[in-house]
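Quick one: co-fold with nicotinamide-adenine-dinucleotide.
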Amino acid sequence: METTVLPLYINGEFIRKSPQFDNISPVNGQLVSKVTYADRADVDNAVAAARAALDGPWGEMTPEQRSALLNKLADAIEARFEDFVAAEVQDTGRPLSVARSLDIPRAIANFRTFADMSKTNVSTSCITYNADGSQLINYTVRKPLGVIAVIAPWNLPLLLMTWKLGPALSMGNTVVCKPSEETPSSATLLAEVMDQVGIPKGVFNLIHGYGREGEYLTQNKDIDAVSFTGESRTGASIMKTVADGVKEVSFELGGKNAAVVFADADFDAAVAGVARSSFFNTGQVCMCTERVYVHRSIFDKFVAALKAKAESLVLGAPDGADTEVGPLISHKHREKVASYFKIAVEEGATVVTGNRIPEFGDDKDGGAFVLPTIWTGLNDDARIIQEEIFGPVCHISPFDDDAEVIKRVNDSKYGLVCSLWTTNVARSHRVAGQIHTGIVWVNTWFARDLRTPFGGVKASGIGREGGQYSLDFFSEITNVSVKY
Ligand code: NAD
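Sure, here it is.
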């Protein structure tokens, strides 16, 4: 069978050429497709096309017309739902059920939500009373921010890319997108659908490649802003690159998220919730829990229950009827996660379960699987407790009182999310208010309402996206002041 070659999409043209890089399945190590590398000229052409498109038919559309087009786009994704599921699953190896229930529905919702919000967005106004009796009517006018560089990671490829594209396009911007080198397929399919529904040429451009190609994009002086999701150190590097041009940035970065289980928690709900927050998507969600703090009075019971849950999880291929946990994204990423198996032992951790690569005796042995892993016994300054691992792993520590655990949760360079498990309502509010993260969940995890702010503090990010926060980032406001 002929190998598929994924194209770039620049100024409404699909471009297939050499050189190309390999897209490898994390399930069995086999070639999925070849991907066209963007060179610097391609990236510059994409930015130029995006710049020109701001003044084309796209720039002349009313918010209602743009909104109608984005809803048409959402309908077209829905019409090719299973193609998108297949694209996401072949690159990530995640269970089909996850792509069907999370990735693709959320991508559709990202377009529909922001299509509606941008249409109903209102400007603000106020009247100034001057000493000479004259007055000013002040009102705001929102304009597109311009050409946006959208750079996305591999862990929730289409979901995270469209989380930026929905608001960016609905506010009239044009974009140059770079998906991760690990997950180029769903973004390429999205380009096909953009083309098919008639998004004007140059509005959405797609380039493929690694960090170097991402840098071609951020180094281009003609972009107006960068919306980036990925590792904190990549964010730092992008920030340096765009500093001279004083470009706006919105960064959703790494995490080392905690879950706190109080003695009064609904025990079974907490075990199920922490198992999900630690092992869902093979631990590859920026919001996953890698630090668990459990009240000492229920510590042993909790560790035993989470161990049983972790050991019951079924690892397998995406189409396995019982599969709950897929592989990591790549062998390279597995090397990183497995290096922490070694570090944990060197640091003196007690291995409760996992801490190794499984053997299946079939072609999955060519994949990038690891066992769900639980450790205990380390001090808070251990690397296992401080560094983002981004795998199906967690360390569980006992705690004695609320003030102590709040301090320990906040003792991190990251600050993305935290989950509290308690039936005491007053405690949940009191503690949540003192946790230094962008999101605190109580008795739940990964509960998302697209209107709410999403983002992190400290090394976990800059700014917030979601609802009005996204519309604010992806637009410029001019205050018009009229004297009368
Ligand atoms: P990464 O930073 O390695 O790569 C992200 C993207 O940036 C990729 O497209 C990559 O090719 C590109 N890139 C790499 N170097 C670049 C550079 N110097 N200039 C421009 N672009 C560059 O991240 P990853 O490994 O793909 O994703 C995992 C990370 O993302 C984890 O740290 C995770 O916590 C984080 N993440 C955060 C959120 C959030 O919302 N806060 C969500 C998902 C993932």
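If it helps, The chain is about 40% helix and 20% strand.
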